[in-house]
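debug: dumping io for the single-chain case to check the tokenizer round-trip. Nothing else runs in this session.
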Amino acid sequence: MSKTRFPDGFLWGGALAANQCEGAWNVGGKGLSVADCSLYKAHVDPKDYKALHHISSADIAAAEACTEIGPYPKRRGIDFYHRYREDLDLLAQMGFKTLRVSIQWTRIFPKGIETEPNEAGLAFYESLFTEMRARGIEPLVTLHHYEMPLHLVNHYDGWYRREVVGFFLRFTETVFRRYRHLVKYWLSFNEIDSAFRHPFSTMGICEDRHPKEKLEEIIWQGLHHQLVASALATKQLHAIIPGAQMGCMVTSLLSYPETCRPENCLKAVRDNRDNLTISDVQVHGVYPPSALSAWRKRDIKIVMEQGDEEILKAYPVDFVSFSYYMSMVSSVNEAEREKVGGNVTSGVKNPYLPVSDWGWQIDPIGLTISLIELYDRYRKPLFVVENGLGARDKLVDGTVEDDYRIAYFRDHISAIGDALDEGVDVMGFTAWGCIDSVSLSTSQMSKRYGFIYVDCDDEGHGSMSRIPKKSFSWYRDVIASNGAGF
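debug: decoded output
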């Protein structure tokens, strides 16, 4: 039972990413993106996060040579590109107030460098947003969600090169103007802080093309370019769509000290501070002293053009959105401790928390803590735009009895209610993968998050039919009551 009625206008809904759900990878003039190189690695340990995400130059060449879906499940997705009206009807039945989606850059500018946009791509998203509005669903649109044009990877070293800022701003201006009457809420970069965890999907940096000793500096340089691009896109948005709002999107990686040993407490403070470095820049408009100190100590030199610092300061984001799946543990003896997996990284096991099928630590109280700490730090509205449970759902007699997912969401939504009781300003909640789709990290379909089951297995076999799970009606009732009781 939620302890408080959620505020009027609270944006209940779900979240999807174009590269994980749309499919139609070579339809309508779309170009190749980094996601079209993501392999299904059935043999890799789910805890080996680096191996799951690593894409080499040889992998890129193989993906470019493959003219079929092949071993690249994100090319298939769940065929949302052709089935979005059917899917929106189901989400409308649940009473969704908002749906978070993303725009594939390569549908609008197939290589990223064109001077004129691809009309077929523009028309697709215009239809998608129009159909959402017709069903009373507010679009929440991510501009850059692990969908960078592969051409920019091969010819510009991804976001490492400054020219990409200009290419991106051409894309953002195009979509802002085209959808100015359809979209009010935007996010610039999905989990922008993930650049160090998986630089290829986040910023198009192929690690084997750079000296290992320079990789950290190269990633920081790419992040600086993304931060400048985010600020300038915010400037564009406010000029083109008065009243529209831009949010940042970061990963909440709340970390507890393993014990009250001072060394563990200090490590937790540092880990939590590092986790918020990028959002600090997007909210406050300056690099925090801790980042500048780290650059000096590690001899990292970031090239900034004249005016960059003023741009960052002048155009901060309007709200802070984040993903929350699990908490972490900080230990100075990490190498000696038992590890668990996760959606973003592996870490030390917390003995007080249960784990999911994929080894994620389930910690709803951590969401309350994250909301309180983020609001205390930023004093801007917060938006929980990803939260969910990946599980091995079983379809039996035409349904999925996913009581475990209901319990997970009940606890996490209650945790948001607890934060609201503490005075935190929360705009909304979008459950991740509200329709089963291809997993980001493992490229599996068997890692299911949705309220709606999609008949497709890891190899792509199945009818793609949509089947509501037990959680479908449960979440419908939560939305109908505005979180008053569930």
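debug: round-trip ok. The chain has a mean pLDDT of 94.
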